[in-house]
Amino acid sequence: MPNKICLLLLLFIGNLFFSFAQSKKSISTTKISGTIALDGELNEEAWKNVSVATDFVMFEPDNGKAIDPKKKTEVRILYDDEAIYVGALLYDDEPSKIMKEITERDDFGTTDAFGIFINGYNDGQQDFRFFVTAAGGQLDCLATEQIGEDFSWNAIWDSKVKITSFGWAIEMKIPYAALRFPGENIQTWGLNFVREIKRERRIYTWTHVDSRIGAVIQQAGILNGIQNIKTPTRLFLIPYSSFYLNAGDRQNTKGELKGGLDVKYGINDAYTLDAILVPDFGQTKFDNVILNLGPFEQQFNENRPFFTEGTDLFSKGNLLYSRRIGQTPNFYPSLSENESITDYPGGINLLNAMKISGRDKDGLGIGFLNAITERTTATVSNSSDNSTREVVVSPLTNYNVTVFDQRFNQNSSVTFINTNVTRNGSFRDANVTGLLFDLNNKSNKYNASGGIKSSGIYDVINTNGVNASLNLAETSGKFRYSVGGEYISKDFDNNDLGINFKTNYYSIYSNVNYRILNPNKVFNTFRVSLGSYVEFYKPTQQIQLSNFNFNLNSTNKNNHYFGGGISINPFENYDYYEPRIANRYFVNPKNMGGYFYFSSNYNYKFAIDLNPYLTHVLNENRYETGINIRPRYRFNDRFSLVYSFDYARQQNDIGFIDFENSDIIFARRDRNTYTNALSSKFSISSVMNFNLSVRHYWSIAENNQINTLNEDGSLSPNTTYSNNKNSNFSSWNLDLSYSWWFAPGSQMSILYRNNAATFDRNINRNFGTNFNNLFDDNLNHVLSISVRYFIDYNQAKGWVKKG
Question: What is the domain count for the chain?
Answer without folding.
Answer: 2
